[in-house]
TrEMBL record:
Coiled coil: none annotated. The keyword Kinase does not apply. It comes from the Bacteria. The keyword Cytoplasm does not apply. GO terms for biological process: bacterial-type flagellum organization. Residues 102-178 form the FlgD/Vpr Ig-like domain. This is Basal-body rod modification protein FlgD. The lineage of its organism: Bacteria, Pseudomonadati, Pseudomonadota, Alphaproteobacteria, Hyphomicrobiales. Keywords: Bacterial flagellum biogenesis, Cell projection, Cilium, Flagellum. Belongs to the FlgD family. Pfam families: FlgD, FlgD_ig. Required for flagellar hook formation. May act as a scaffolding protein.
């Protein structure tokens, strides 16, 4: 059985919730005015509080609701911008990402994939094909269970050095001592060079290859 994870996509919905800061502060301008009236009624008429101080406090607290509303709106705006950047894929542009998939591009003379084996294999064969389905390289892979990384230098089996660009797909065929297939998954790693949303879904471009945003596993420095 061949371990081959297609660059697939499943839509998810993200909901952003913004909580109100006013509930945690627990004091509104109405509350303050009530306290002010209570204090005016209870103060010593022979030693009243300075009216200038009262006025300053009233002006300050009268604007509390407005300031709080602006703060909430700014928080919502920040959340919206973050969501837009993430959803549009702009935050990934120029970064190196790892994502579920099996097709990537030859960049700077190399292409990198990851693959995992659910159990130890007797033999593992790695095959790389071009966008037309032609086999350009084949060789042995790791046989231990777990995750592995494979980097191809763009040299074909017959020694021809391929130029950067284009799409290349990896397939991993792992079998145990009885000849039974071993299951696993594949990932691709590459530099995001472009974004395409013409189809209505955000697709990140790694050279000539494409991956969906929801398939991204990590961003590498």
């Amino acid at each position: 059985m061949t371990i081959s994870t297609v660059n697939s996509y499943s839509a998810t919905t993200t909901t952003t919730t913004s909580s109100s800061s006013s509930s945690s502060l627990g004091l509104t301008s109405e509350d303050f005015l009530e306290l002010m009236l209570e204090q005016l009624q209870s103060q010593n008429p022979l030693d009243p509080t300075d009216t200038d101080t009262y006025l300053d406090r009233m002006v300050s607290y009268a604007s509390y609701d407005t300031q709080n509303s602006i703060s909430e709106q700014l928080g919502t705006l920040v959340d919206s911008v973050d969501s837009m950047i993430s959803g549009s894929g702009l935050g990934y542009l120029g970064t190196t990402v790892e994502a579920y998939g099996n097709t990537t591009s030859l960049q700077d003379g190399s292409a990198t994939w990851g693959y995992s084996l659910e159990s130890d294999a007797e033999s593992t064969t790695i095959t790389i094909t071009d966008s037309d389905g032609n086999t350009v390289w084949t060789g042995d892979g790791e046989t231990d269970s777990g995750s592995h990384t494979f980097t191809w230098d763009g040299t074909t089996t017959d020694g021809t050095q391929l130029a950067d660009g284009g799409s290349y797909t990896i397939s991993v065929n792992a079998t145990d001592a009885d000849g039974d297939a071993i299951d696993g998954t594949t990932t691709v790693t590459g530099l995001v060079t472009g974004i395409d949303s013409s189809s209505g879904e955000t697709v990140l471009q790694i050279g000539g290859a494409e991956i969906q945003v929801d398939n991204i596993l990590s961003i590498q420095s």
